[in-house]
Amino acid sequence: MDGAAGLSTDESAAAPKTKPALSRFWKQVTLESTDGKAKRNGKFQVKLDKRPIKTPDGQKIEIAADRKILGLLLVAEWDSQTKVIKPHSLPLTSLVARSMDGLSSNQQRQDVIKHLSRYLHTDAICFQQTYPQPLVDLQDKAWSPIIEWIQTEYKVKINVTDELFGMSQTPETEAQLLAVVSEFHPLKLAAFERAVMHSKSFLLGLALVNRLVSVEQAVEASQVELLAQIKQWGLVEDNN
């Protein structure tokens, strides 16, 4: 994925994507209309001292007028940078850049969706253990509502197992869910891709981008085994 470290302004757009950490060189971050007016069908740019930020591939990041809140959040991300730019603290900017550089064409989108489809057949929340009970309880609490919602919402059957190998979804389920994802806006697809890759769960990614669960709930759902261990044994500090 394209990282925020590769983001640039006009003066550094041609620089390599892999480069040393940048120091903050701007004084003011603003959100400005591209035509000087806040029209409904217009666009906004985030500017650092009047210079628009760019993606790693050199595209000026532009936000549609109906997504102005997203633009304001990008401004907040860049304004929060102190002496050194920290890529991990620019997650929304990174997602926007990914949607523009890596998911704008139909071929790019199809390639990404094909890659993500693999997670549907190895989905973390479809492999459910039957012991110990604290883990079983957490799995049921965090995962069952997601599976039930997806089955009802998209009229598919989700297979689950307590075996380590041999589980997969039916061709009908795969086709239906991939058809749903193929309709995602590039920005939504970028968020979905990030969620699936981090959680190792296609279904959890769907639940997150469709606001069935919050980010906090998604993180907890992806860490039920760890949370069950903490519940049973307590939190063990890492002394390394």
Automatic annotation (TrEMBL):
Which species is the source of this protein? Dimargaris cristalligena
Q: What is this protein called?
A: ATP12-domain-containing protein
Cite the Pfam families for this sequence: ATP12
Single Gene Ontology BP annotation: mitochondrial proton-transporting ATP synthase complex assembly
Name the principal localization, coarsely classed: mitochondrion
Keyword annotations of the record: Chaperone, Mitochondrion, Transit peptide
The Swiss-Prot or TrEMBL record describes its family as follows: Belongs to the ATP12 family.
Q: Kindly give the InterPro entries that the UniProt entry links to this protein.
A: ATP12_ATP_synth-F1-assembly, ATP12_ATP_synth-F1-assembly_N, ATP12_ortho_dom_sf
One Gene Ontology term, aspect cellular component? mitochondrion
Protein localization? Mitochondrion
